[in-house]
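Posting this for the archive.
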Amino acid sequence: MKKIVTSLIMMMSLGATVKAQIPAWIEDSVSIAPAYANDVYYSMKNDEVRTEGNKNWHLAFSLSIGDSAGVWANHNGGNSFVRVFNIHKDSSQWASVSLADTATGVLAFNNDQGWFQGAFNDIPSADPFNYGWGKYEPTTHNIYGDSLFIVRANGIYYKLFIQKLESIPMIWTFKVGDFSGNDMTYTINKTPDFTNRLFAYFDLATGADTNREPDISAWDILFTRYTTNAPGSGQFPFNNVVGVLTNKGVKAARASLIHVDTAFVQYYNYSNNWNPAISAIGYNWKGFDLGSNTWLIADSNSYFIQDKPGNLYQLQFLSFGGQSTGNIKFRKRMVAPVAVTDVNSTVSRYEFYPVPTQSQLSVMLDSKEHAEAQLNIIDMAGRMIHSQKINIQSGLNAYQLSLGHLSNGQYIVQIKGQHIQIAEKVQIDK
């Protein structure tokens, strides 16, 4: 992963500043590997957070309030890797389940609109308390299973009964059978192993749960394969695509057929019209050209993303390597940093990114008025490494600091002025 700062504002040495209404792009890339074998969790502020093989799980149990009944199947490798059959049998018929039930069973799929609906929730019902695999009980606030499934996971068939989700302290209980008379009951407890995770993952072959996600607060978007029923996604009702899904609490909107700089200036048009789907970024930022046998990306599309802390970014895809490499190149820039809570502060929003940084640090300030301030860089022993005056203009100010000559480690970047008190810890990691 290589980051490049491109010059919509002039690159300056440490201590120099420049005001700009449109800040610099930062180019970045991720790789989901040849044959799309990996998932990549990504933070808009901190870049790539974690890369995981996308076939190291079969089932995923939601652990997030509001989405807590969601149970997903691993469709990262297509429906051929994990296939879910709703066999129209209830829990009393466990002993009679056979592979013949797959002939009359209905295939179930994850829904790319929200984390709340995985394949095991894909049983239509007019009852608002019906979550597909089971029903909510208002007295206990638990969900009790009432449906049986057959799951083919990596070529092996299992029967599955999700017995209960105990809402507090959020404990899943489910039974797995192997059609040879061997049944096992498993539990997954949110605490302590899966605290602050969106899902807990389970491998049917090993009977082991897996903590493969970063902390839910540490990532914003996920580069992955998933199934979608979106028009134009393929020839089947549900098609496997490569794209980007958003974390819970992250917002996204697409700016179509408009120059990226024009869209930047008009960002409020998009930040007031968020797409609620987790596939708001999705897969169709690229298209395959049969004539040239290459992937093409329109340069008139970009995306606005509000990350977990509340910072607003613009993202534009640059290239897609396809199945041979799995490389995805893009660039990003901050539109509006997170708000300052002090109502008396001259600076209403600010952000330093990326953190950690290899050399270049972007500083963004949104100021209510013109002001003068002192920008200081201090090491962890309290020594002043650099100090300079900066003139802050009313509106958005963007600065680039070149820190490549400093040693690896932590530093404090401080901005002080009348009604301005900002200090953030910055990590240099070359």
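The first helix runs from residue 101 to 104. The CA atoms of residues 243 and 369 lie 41 Å apart.
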